């Protein structure tokens, strides 16, 4: 064996042993080789999908890969652009759907039910999805029992004030999520968000009370009569109304 062949063999052995452990620093050519290798495990493909969630070139290569499992495909669908979602539908011959739909779509296409597949994801997949996913993914994961997954949704840079308002009024979310919304200075500049927080029985009293002074009379009147909020909130709303009527508020 001449020197050139010997070094090629050494490099190939090291390449296969080390690259999967250093996915973050692979070149596009090396990544493509890993993706196209029939022996590459689905776990490595999933790691590539998480690391390169913003690289449409790599995502297209992954979508074409027969070794890619459905949960990773769902992750890609929920974090990528509409162009990649359309590419998935064409390449994998599937309809990407949310909700409880199952079975086959018209034309014999299989339905890729994202809701069901998110449930099957590992905690690390869900955290990454919470941090980078689109609106559908955020709406699912904010309800996770795991605190770190649910809270990661609130750190997603794509989150909108409309979603925050919806979360603030939801009574089926954890107190930790409600508290984080209530202590975010940017979100609580919006009166719609503080109104949702104060009206939510899950909101801690220590979060609600400082916002009472900012509420309009109409909201105060509703709070004063509400039996779903804590007594301290009702009392504070009543006192604020009395102050305003007496000209002291």
Explained architecture:
The protein has a two-stranded parallel sheet with strand order 1-2. The longest helix has 16 residues, at 3-18. It has a domain at 160-249. It is built from 16 helices and two strands. The protein is mainly alpha-helical and 249 residues long. The chain has helices spanning 3-18, 28-36, 42-51, 56-64, 70-79, 82-91, 114-120, 123-132, 135-141, 147-153, 161-169, 175-182, 191-199, 205-208, 217-225, 231-245; strands spanning 94-97, 110-113. The protein is elongated.
Index terms:
two-stranded parallel ribbon, mainly alpha, single chain, 249 residues
Distance between the termini: 92 Å
Please give the order of strands in the largest beta sheet: 1-2
β-sheet strand percentage:
under 5%
The helix-and-strand class reads mainly alpha
Total beta-strand segments = 2
Tally of helical runs: 16
Q: How is the main sheet built?
A: 2 strands, parallel
Envelope shape: elongated
Portion in helices: 55-70%
Average residue pLDDT = 85
Encode the helix/strand succession as letters: HHHHHHEEHHHHHHHHHH
State Rg: 25 Å
| Low confidence ranges | 15-20
Question: What does this entry show, briefly?
Answer:
Helix content is 60%, strand content 3%.
Chart the SSEs and their pairings.
Blueprint: H1 3-18, H2 28-36, H3 42-51, H4 56-64, H5 70-79, H6 82-91, E1 94-97, E2 110-113, H7 114-120, H8 123-132, H9 135-141, H10 147-153, H11 161-169, H12 175-182, H13 191-199, H14 205-208, H15 217-225, H16 231-245
Helix pairs in contact: 4-6, 5-6, 5-7, 8-10, 11-13, 15-16
